[in-house]
Amino acid sequence: MKSRLAVLGVIGVILAPTLPLPAAAASFDCERTDLAADEKVICETRALNDADVKMVTTFDILTSLLAMGNRDVLREEQSAWLKKRQACGGDAACLTTAYAERMKQLNEAYEGLSRPL
């Protein structure tokens, strides 16, 4: 498990220099004028912005590793999670918890991948 998480961490470190800083979170454009309350707080809070980048990167990696049917399930789960995140509004503590829970789910999905021996 630690080695798999380490691989995701290494990928994150490799990709981090190419990612934009707080002006743009990974999943949306912070420069938009019509940001929702949750998006505003994510853009204004470095830890939440970083959590967004990590979550989207992990989601994208997982999506590329899953079979087509499982990709659809992962995307449906992501849509449900986004609604939960939006329900947090401008509550940074709620958003922090939502990201932690989603990362736990994504890490568990990664752990559950079938791999050839």
From TrEMBL:
What Gene Ontology cellular component terms go with this record? Answer: extracellular region
Decide whether keyword Electron transport is in the record.
no
- InterPro entries registered for this protein in UniProt: Lysozyme_Inhibitor_LprI, UCP037256
The protein in question is named DUF1311 domain-containing protein
**Span of the signal peptide:** 1-25
Give the record's keywords alphabetically: Signal
Keyword Signal found: yes
Q: What is the lineage of its organism?
A: Bacteria, Pseudomonadati, Pseudomonadota, Alphaproteobacteria, Hyphomicrobiales
